[in-house]
């Protein structure tokens, strides 16, 4: 299951407003999108080392500690021209830090803020998911598919029946039908904007057919 704590995302789906996870003092509303539209940088990478560093002082003059992860970037899906070499986060989940495994074997999909000079910053509110936890459709969709739905709206269905209120909405029913966040729609579908401005769920790893984009019911 993926957790993305950003409301506007390529596949914006999650629990109802008010349903949150409490992790170390950081309240987060979960969703299942593996690729957030607003994130400046989205990469596939593995962490190879970690150390605590100072990153300035707070308003009281106390040093601000950060964990600096040295990472090996495997692929950049979105971001600056320069590879990401270091990722910074708070030292613990209690202050919204996002821990990474430094064994060098786990590959991650990471979305966060690019700070230039090969640096990136992440918090618990950013997407960090192990690569192996993504479905084949989610992995394939990272290259372009999710971008086709940035202007669409996901309407959360809490119980059946439920309906969309406009043509640019996709009705998300994983929670209503399966009582889980990362259900069938999240793993195998993407909400895509079609030629007439309407939005619809598309399933499959192949690029959408032109007939689908030209208003073919999925």
Description of the structure:
It is a single chain. This protein is mainly β and 218 residues long. The protein has 2 domains: 41-133, OB fold (Dihydrolipoamide Acetyltransferase, E2P); 136-212, Tissue inhibitor of metalloproteinase-1. Chain B, domain 1 (Alpha-Beta Complex). The chain contains 4 helices and 12 strands. The chain has helices at 136-141, 174-178, 184-188, 210-213, and strands at residues 21-23, 26-28, 41-57, 63-78, 86-89, 108-116, 119-121, 128-130, 153-156, 169-172, 189-193, 199-203.
Overall structural class, as computed from helix and strand content, comes to: mainly beta
Helix tally equals: 4
Q: What is the succession of H and E elements?
A: EEEEEEEEHEEHHEEH
Q: What is the global morphology? A: elongated
GO cellular component, one term: extracellular space
Keywords: Disulfide bond, Metalloenzyme inhibitor, Metalloprotease inhibitor, Protease inhibitor, Secreted
Subcellular location: Secreted
GO biological process, one term: response to cytokine
